Amino acid sequence: MTRPFRKLTILSVFGALALALSPVVSAPASAAEMKELRIALLPNEAPDKELKKHATMTQHLEKILGMKVKVQVGIDYTAVIEALRNNHVHVAYLGPFSYILADEATNGNVEPLVVGVRKKTGKSAYNSVIIARTDSGINDAKDFGKKHTLSFSDPASTSGFLVPSYRFSQLGIDPQKDFKQVIFAGGHVASLMAVNSGKVDGAGTNLPSLQKAINDGVVDKSKIKIVWTSPDIPGSPLTVRKDVPWEIKYKLLKAFMGIPEGVVSYEGKMAAYEPAFDEQYDIIREIKAKMKDKMR
């Protein structure tokens, strides 16, 4: 095994955080005191590409909020969580699992604001998938074994780590012991590229990321097959610190639920946005609790 699987605990996730976003911002007492809203995005593509791609959304927010909006891309999922915890940013686009981790890290000082409704399904929910190379001989998640290599996207990813790990656990497979090699690629695109290039035999990711990578020509559809699809997972919430003034939250809600035609949100093109609520993510808390011993 050239790169051992990292033993994970919730504490080790936070222990590896890089404070790479911006200087600390003190919590504003009122909306009038806020001169700038800081938003953190999870890493997907290179930061400069991400910022350029979402420039129209940032401009839309600035128009509705009436203030400067500064968007930054975290070096990994946990850096974004730490930015929220330390008040480096006011708002973050998080996955369901990273939202739960942020809620714990801030002692409940974050809340989900909105979640996107997907055009293809008409639902905010999405699905994790376990994929394999078509030449791997793997036709089901249970076929993975000691001779196989696997890529996860990030230790704080829902569809790229938590949910596929839970599926393997249900099958009696422990990625820490039962694979030849497990890597963390750093994001869904990188994980998919690792499978496409033959670096690994399979990966845990999500259906929207896989479909986009195929459509964008990042991966060759003929080289990859889905061997397991999860039940619906609650959608990724735009998350805001609770100490952000309510006037700003209201304007953010208004901005996301009224995105003009031609403006692409921070997670791509959505049919609409709807309010999100903490209890939607209890299922992720339940999976995390069941996986507690496996993540030590």
**How does the helix and strand content classify structurally?**
alpha/beta
Shape: globular
Q: What is the element string, with H for helices and E for strands?
A: HEHHEHEHEEEHHEHEHEEHEH
Helix share, percent:
25-40%
Write up this protein.
This protein is globular. The protein folds into two domains: about 10-120 and about 235-295, D-Maltodextrin-Binding Protein, domain 2, CATH 3.40.190; about 130-230, D-Maltodextrin-Binding Protein, domain 2 (3-Layer(aba) Sandwich), CATH 3.40.190. Helices cover about 35% and strands about 20% of the residues. Helix 3 crosses helix 10, helix 4 runs parallel beside helix 5 (about 95-105) and helix 6 packs across helix 11 (about 280-290). The relative contact order is 0.20. The chain has about 300 residues and is α/β, with parallel strands linked by helices. It starts with 9 loop residues before the first helix and ends in a 6-residue tail after the last helix. The strands form two sheets. Strands 2-1-3-10-4-11 form a six-stranded mixed sheet, with helices on both faces. It contains eleven helices and eleven strands.
Keywords:
296 residues; alpha/beta; D-Maltodextrin-Binding Protein, domain 2; five-stranded mixed β-sheet; 11 strands; 33% helix; globular; disordered N terminus
